[in-house]
Amino acid sequence: MSMLYFTAIYNTKEKAYAIMKETEKNFEKFNNYLNSAIASQEKRKVSSKWKPADMGKKVQLSPIINCLEIKQRLEFEWKDSWYEVSVLNGDVPKSSEQLTFVRTEKFVKPEEYQLVTSDTGTVFINLNFIPFEDETILWGEKTFIKLRKFTLDKNKLSISQQRSSSVIQLDSISEDKENCIYSASFSGSIDPEIPLIVNGFIVKNWKLIRTDKNSTFYVDEKPLDIIKREGSLFYTRMPVRENSVLTCGGISINFQLKKLSLPQKVKHKENILDVLVEDGQVKLYGETKDIKTGDKVTDYNNALMEFAVTIESEKVDPYTVWIELMDDEEYPDDGSIFQNSSIDYFFSEDVSELEGNPENPSEKQKKFCIDPHRNKEERLLKLRRRDNQPLSYEYLPKILYISINTHQLKMQKDAIKSIKERPLVEHKYLLALTEKKNDNNPWQRFEPDEPEQWYVLKDKNRDGTERQRNFVRKAIATPDFVLLEGPPGSGKTTAILELIIQLAKMGKRILLSASTHVAIDNVLEKLQEIDCMNFMFPLRIGREDVIADSIKKYSIDNVANESSEYRRIIVDAANLVCGTTIGILQHPNFKDHSKDEPIVPEFDYLIIDESSKTTFQEFLVPALHAKKWILVGDVKQLSPYTETDHLVACLENYSKKRKFPVFEENLQKACLIIWKYLCSPKEKDLFDSKYCIVEKDKVIDTIKKEIKARYDAKSKGITSELLEKVAFLEKGDKNNDCYKGILNIVTFQDCVEGKPTSWLLPGFNVLFAKESELKKFKKYIPSNMHVLFRTDWELESQQFKMAAYYGRVGNRDNSEKNSNSCDDVIKKNNEFFREKRWASEVIWRTIRLHELRESKKNIKWISKDIDNLLPELDKDNVLQIYEEVKDIALPSILESLKKGVGKKNEKDNHTVLNSGFKPDDLNLRYECLDFQHRMHPEISAFPREQFYSKEGALKDAASIDREWSYSRYPSRSIWIDVNGKTYRGSNDEEATRLIKEVEAFVEWAKYNPKADGKPWTVACLTFYKGQERKIKDRLRKFPNCSRRNSQFEKEGVTVLLYTIDKFQGREADITIISMVQTKKDGFLDSPNRLNVAITRARYQQVIIGKKPYFLKSNSKDLKALAQATASLNEEGKK
Questions:
Q1: Residue of 829, 1070, 1106 whose CA lies nearest to 975
Q2: Max Cα separation, the chain?
């Protein structure tokens, strides 16, 4: 059947057959990998503790305190003695000149008049008599003027005071023309000791009436009990209504009842409660069990403000409960950085069911469905029983479990099967990725196409626009692939926007995918902003709770819910379908496709944003549904996230399905033991202690064979000198002849007869013994040997002799003095082999090697460790498996097509997938953006030099405007030196300082709003989950943030908290990075991860860490960063 499909694509049967066989071979390794990954995940359970979720108590809060805004009154005298001056010739003379009234022959000396100049330059004069109208006046000797009477218009009255910033708002204004008195009620604050300014004129005769501190007010004829006064605001506990009558001195006073704003926190007895308004309903969060209608609460920040509580009735659903998942108590400071937290799995898009402990008979039958309405930010899940019975918290197991969903892996496997067995003509170029490179190049030449009009990339003179346009020109003309790379902030999303619009205008259907929801929603939000939805029909695939609020209207469930009879028509009509690489799998055409049918591409283009985080097998699932493929990303940022368990499972099990001799379990254990006790460069005190290793017979036999193989091959550090310190204790065996001259083998007969060879036993550093022979040999084990891998050895005489020999009898009190006791040495070694597996030790080093592939750091020790862990026995087969697993799981599709991965020697067939496009083919299909528009130049300087200098990228665009008045730091990239201590991936001192910096910025931001009207954003970033939690505990003390995990707010400033790995693709106005480490580089030394960390900030970057350590770091990148970044000490001094 497969041959029919391949024949339809290629011209001849011979070529079709050859390519079919090549395709089967190339994709079989992907199939093997996915089979092992699926098998490993299907066995795996992830668990989390929980607590009942605080969903808040619905209440009404009625102020007990009334606030009255009393309209105060003032009076001022205004005589009609001001005149506006009109100059008939020349300039206005100095005020020291005499006035001569021509008609009346009157002379006015300078000291007899007063001049005022308004803000507009108009001159006014004050006289103590009334001149004739239109009378000509000589001012000085040459200038003639005329005067026009200035009348005060009460409808345009403005009042202020000298040296006061208080705003005075006038209410009713009355005029007593006979006495030239104006009276006005006002709100605001007036100081009776400061001169009054009326419409720019200083008024001397004025007074404040009826509102001085000694005034007595009456409400409905009862004295007003004033408990606090703020300017025109008066606070009282007395009942006051809108129609109440307020008087003072018998005169009625205008007032207004002011509505008091809800507090953010209130105090009830000894409990502090958060106050939130959700969907117009007030809710209290915290210890609300004892609160009841009629209780009184006070504003936490202002004890004067009191509110009466009325509890609102709520409907209780007996079939559902809300739970909050709880953090792990501790995060290890090790390879766990490569793992998701357990809570991440619970909120995965493809998880819909929980269960009890599968090992507990009373719990394993309990199954719970997760309601679609979930809240990842607050880690809330709404549950119901699968059997539709009522549910209570008491019924729920204390720990909940989920099975890891393998749907994504199975979809990848199905995609591999589909392209192997049922490819269509549209898939020709996907097949070409794995074809052997030869003279018959399948990659066509083409000419970039010029669009008729540019919709987003309008300004051709803007830095970087031409390269963005080049990408679009290539993308709309390509018959197959186009690759776009760009450093952070270079406008990759903008280029995608332009391409989507151009394709939509051409009538094309587009499938947009990325690894994160943020990347997808960002594109849709910007399409909305530029008003391009009139010719766009977008469809957002994914659960509604993970989609941005502004995009939810495009959600598939809102546009076409499952019950709609028109759902399929609507889905097929959408010309822009968007979803993450996981979420897109829920597209009806993906989900409902029959495995036995070929996949007919319904999209003209697939655009993968963040393709540097997407593996080939992830890419292939949506790729089969499209005819052309656009890959966008940056290989200098983070690589794809791959479950370590997948790689471990493949390395352990991959070979079991091969026909050649397999790398079986005994050899894996043997290699781990040999590495640990004979080859490990990190075991500096390897021979400070002596070990007797007791293992299964087959493992010991395999150790002997592996040591001999390494010795014969002169590889992996096994030398005659090393083997002089190693011996095997066993009964006589004819098969040992092959080890003569290589291994020291002491037999039972040697020991019984006391032969000289047995005398040497105490001198060996490592002694191997078979488990089945231990009983016979145990009395011959030297007293200076630590016997490992035995749980029944504590009462053996050798154990006591050993303790006496070393003078370190372990009393098991775990005190620091006994940290090197015999018990501790044995316990440490036994724990290592209980917790570690050969494959896990190989894989975490392999991932680290991949992470550090661009590093300038010395990483030879990692390669050497891997080499020493891999066997010499069956070397070629195991190495082949290892390379296949590594090359499938770690590289991104973008890196594969650009550089190629997996081409190790000339025997391998060259393909695009393992060695990249040929230079000419790549140049035609590749564009790299070179200008950045995000960071202040002082922030971009270091990553440009350190990571992008070869490409000449990350240049600063001339259009960058990052000016602001925040002057806390002397540089836009600053390092605050904090001498903290690291404990299990956290640093308390750094967390404390980070919060201090956040609060300082928030205080500034209160008075300095952002020019675009959007809130300022602060990103708190760290490399470790332990530190993320430490910072989170502090941020939760912000008002109304007690349940938040990553998105906080204070005084209108948005504060984000993420690990570096979770923040790729995002940016913030200011980033504050906690380095955590003080004695080792840890995982900070990955150039890709460091690049992401230091390219997120727009205005300001703050690094908090122990700078003296990083100035001596083994990582050249970290050392250079410390050297290049300006410093502040803990006191904030340079």
A1: 1106
A2: 149
Average the pLDDT over 656-682 and give the result: 75
Alpha-helical runs (H) found in 506-563: 517-529, 556-559
Residues 881-898 have pLDDT tens digits of: 888 888 999 999 999 999
Instruction: Report how far apart the first and last C-alpha atoms of the chain are (Å, whole number).
Output: 74
What residues form DSSP beta bridges with 57?
284
**Nearest CA among 1069, 1065, 1130, 1058 for reference residue 1097:** 1069
CA angle 295–296–297, rounded 5-degree value: 125
Domain limits, the chain: 55-66+97-102+221-314, 114-203, 317-403, 424-637, 681-810, 965-1128
Q: How far apart are CA 1068 and CA 718, in angstroms?
A: 53
Average the pLDDT over 71-96 and give the result.
79
Q: Phi, psi (5° rounding) for residue 463?
A: -55, 130
Q: Which residues contact 527 (CB under 8 A, 6 or more apart)?
A: 497, 500, 501, 533, 536, 538
Q: In CATH terms, are 424-637 and 965-1128 the same topology?
A: yes
In angstroms, rounded to a whole number, what is the distance separating the alpha carbons of residues 677 and 768? 11
598-638 per-position pLDDT tens digit: 999 999 999 999 999 999 999 999 999 999 999 999 999 99
CATH placement of domain 424-637: 3.40.50.300
Under the phi-then-psi rule, with left for phi > 0, alpha for psi from -120 to 50, and beta for the rest, what region is 627?
A: alpha
Would you tell me how many other CB atoms lie within 10 Å of the CB of residue 453?
8
pLDDT at 447: 95
Neighbours of 245 (CB within 10 A): 12
Angle at 1088 (CA atoms; ends 1083, 1093), nearest 5 degrees: 75
Pairing of the two strands 576-580 and 538-540:
parallel
Could you give the CA distance from residue 541 to residue 7 in angstroms, rounded to a whole number? Answer: 36
| Region 307-335 average pLDDT | 80
Contact 522, 549 (CB under 8 A): no
Of the candidate CATH numbers 3.40.50.300, 3.40.50.970, 3.40.1190.20, 2.60.40.1220, the domain formed by 965-1128 belongs to: 3.40.50.300
Can you give the C-alpha Rg of the chain in angstroms?
40
Tokens of 999: 């609060």
